[in-house]
Amino acid sequence: MVDIAFIGLGAMGGGMAANLAKAGHRVIAFDLSEPAVTRATQAGCQRARSIAEAVCQARVIVTMLPSGAHVLDVYRSSDGVMAHAPSGALFLDCSTISVQDARTLAHEATKAGFRVCDAPVSGGVGAAQAGTLTFMVGGTDAEYKAAKPILAAMGKAIIHAGAHGAGQSAKICNNMLLAVTMIGTCEAFVLAERLGLDPKAFFEIASQSSGQSWSMTSYAPVPGLVENAPSNRNFTNGFAITLMLKDLRLALAANSECGLKATLALKAEEIYSEYLVKFGPNRDFSGVIDLMKEE
Ligand code: NAD
To answer: Which residues line ligand 1 (CB under 6 A)?
Structure first.
């Protein structure tokens, strides 16, 4: 049993904190949203009224926050994590943020005597609740070893990506690839339909042929093909287009820092931006197929 502070109890963090409590850890939970903290207490966590109260006795601090600006503020501010956590505490930031922000946090935290890993996740809200996330971890070997048993209560795969920032590097590369394969998959389904193919027949063929990908076999953008895919519920309760665009823009910024053009990722950003304007911010990203059907 470990004393763990959990900050950021939203769509993802709520389920993750609940799984840590279920695994027998003492989880002290904080969020700016009162209802989010109440839900966490109902799931077995203890309420904290401030970041200071949450972290002051914790050996491990997990954060699951919207963006890099939120993360740096929560760790750095005078009433934040670094000002109040015990020396040597292990920070696990599971938010998706830029590689640069992750490295900045690691540098400052290490200098202040803490241990730190960037540990972003793959898998959506369902995986957060089921405890089946994939964690991509950036940190030293010793930090990864210390983080692994904690993360294992929330995930099915805990992979050491490399040094600080490597977890975020893996995350944005993965999601850049996902963004592109989903658009290709949607275009193929729309063309198949226009050519008179039964979507079920095309799915059966492509999912066993060279066009196969996760976008096809685990997340098909056409209803009735993959159980639990957002296409079965009119693209609600999935990976919101705003989050996909956030990740894609982090990837594009990293590409330009590395002097890369990333032609397909750039085009994908253009297509998803148009989808966002026409269909609104909450739909799942795979609903971009509806944009293509309009052509
Ligand atoms: P969310 O907006 O539902 O939750 C964020 C929570 O952080 C909110 O409850 C908010 O009140 C809280 N918060 C913000 N600032 C705070 C502060 N200063 N102190 C305490 N709490 C604060 O977001 P989410 O969907 O849970 O996503 C969290 C992170 O996980 C993001 O970085 C996102 O990119 C990443 N992610 C999300 C998904 C997904 O499917 N939703 C999948 C993989 C990764």
So the answer is: 7-13, 30-33, 36, 64-66, 70, 74, 95-96, 121, 124-125, 239, 243, 246
pTM higher than 0.85, yes or no? yes
- What 3-state class would DSSP assign to 86? coil
Structural domains for the chain: 3-163 (3.40.50.720), 169-294 (1.10.1040.10)
The pLDDT tens digits of the residues spanning 207-253 come to 999 999 999 999 999 999 999 899 999 999 889 999 999 999 999 99
Task: Return all residues near 68 (Cβ < 8 A) that are at least 6 apart.
Answer: 95, 97, 98, 101, 102
**Which residues have a Cβ under 8 Å from the Cβ of 272 and sit 6 or more positions away?**
179, 241, 244, 245, 248, 285, 288
* Chain segment 261-270, per-residue pLDDT in tens: 999 999 999 9
Is residue 171 flagged as an active site residue?
A: yes
Q: Where are the alpha helices (DSSP H) in 195-262?
A: 199-206, 214-217, 241-257
How far apart are alpha carbons 29 and 14 in whole angstroms? 9
Distance 12 CA to ligand 1 centre (A): 7
Distance in angstroms (rounded) separating the CA atoms of residues 155 and 127: 8
pLDDT tens sequence across 163-192? 999 999 999 999 999 999 999 999 999 999
3-class DSSP assignment, residue 138? strand
